[in-house]
C-alpha cells in the first residue's frame, strides 16, 4: 500500500537535488508547454509568469521504500515521477489523477484519497475511496 509522506513546500532550486531540478522543469513543460530551467520555474520574481506557484513535493512510499516523487503546483496541477528519475508516470489535471497504467492509477488514487489530496468531487473519488477502504 502506497502512502504520501514527507510533504515539503518548495520555493527555491537550492532545496532540490539535480534530478528534482529536472523534474520541476518537466512539470513546467507539462503545465504550459514551455521548456524552461528549474530556476525560472521557482523564480522569486513576481513578474515572471513562468513560476509554478504553491509548489509542494511529496514522497510516495510503500513498505518504507520510495516509489514516486509527487509534485503539486498551481493549486490544481501536478506531476508524479518514478522515485529518483525523470520518468513522469502520472499527472494531476484540475485536481484529478490522470495515469495511463490502470494498476498504478489505482495505487496512486487510493493513496491520494488517504492523504486528502483528491477532492471528494472528483469523478474517480468514490472508486479510489472504496479501494482505500478495502472494498471491491
Structure write-up:
With 136 residues, this protein is of the alpha+beta class. Helix content is 30%, strand content 28%. It has helices at 18-32, 38-41, 102-115, 125-132; strands spanning 3-9, 56-62, 65-73, 77-82, 88-93, 96-98. A 6-stranded antiparallel sheet has the order 1-2-3-4-5-6, sandwiched between helices.
Strand order of the largest sheet: 1-2-3-4-5-6
What is the overall number of helices? 4
From the N-terminal CA to the C-terminal CA, the straight-line distance is 15 Å
Structural class by secondary-structure content: alpha+beta
**How much is the radius of gyration in Å?**
15 Å
Mean pLDDT: 95
Count of β-strands: 6
Largest sheet: 6 strands, antiparallel
- Sequence of secondary-structure elements: EHHEEEEEHH
The residue fraction in helices comes out at: 25-40%
* Low-confidence regions: none
Q: Which term fits the overall shape? A: globular
Roughly what fraction of the amino acids lie in strands?
Answer: 25-35%
Q: Keyphrases for this structure?
A:
globular; 6 strands; 4 helices; alpha+beta; six-stranded antiparallel β-sheet; single chain; 136 residues
Task: Give a brief rundown of this model.
By secondary structure, the protein is an alpha+beta fold.
Present the secondary structure layout:
Layout (H helix, E strand, L loop, with lengths): L2 E7 L8 H15 L5 H4 L14 E7 L2 E9 L3 E6 L5 E6 L2 E3 L3 H14 L9 H8 L4
Antiparallel strand pairs: 1-2, 2-3, 3-4, 4-5, 5-6
Helix pairs in contact: 3-4
Amino acid at each position: 500500500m502506497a502512502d504520501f509522506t514527507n510533504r515539503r513546500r518548495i520555493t527555491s532550486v537550492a532545496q532540490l537535488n539535480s534530478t528534482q531540478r529536472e523534474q520541476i522543469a518537466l512539470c513546467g513543460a507539462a503545465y504550459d508547454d514551455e521548456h524552461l530551467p528549474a530556476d525560472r520555474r521557482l523564480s522569486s520574481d513576481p513578474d515572471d509568469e513562468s513560476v509554478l506557484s504553491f509548489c509542494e513535493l511529496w514522497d510516495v512510499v510503500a513498505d518504507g521504500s520510495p516509489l514516486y516523487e509527487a509534485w503539486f503546483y498551481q493549486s490544481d496541477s501536478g506531476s508524479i515521477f518514478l522515485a529518483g528519475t525523470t520518468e513522469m508516470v502520472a499527472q494531476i489535471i484540475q485536481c484529478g489523477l490522470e495515469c495511463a497504467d490502470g494498476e498504478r492509477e489505482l495505487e496512486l488514487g487510493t493513496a491520494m484519497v488517504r492523504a486528502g489530496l483528491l477532492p471528494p468531487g472528483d469523478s474517480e473519488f468514490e472508486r479510489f475511496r472504496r479501494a482505500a477502504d478495502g472494498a471491491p
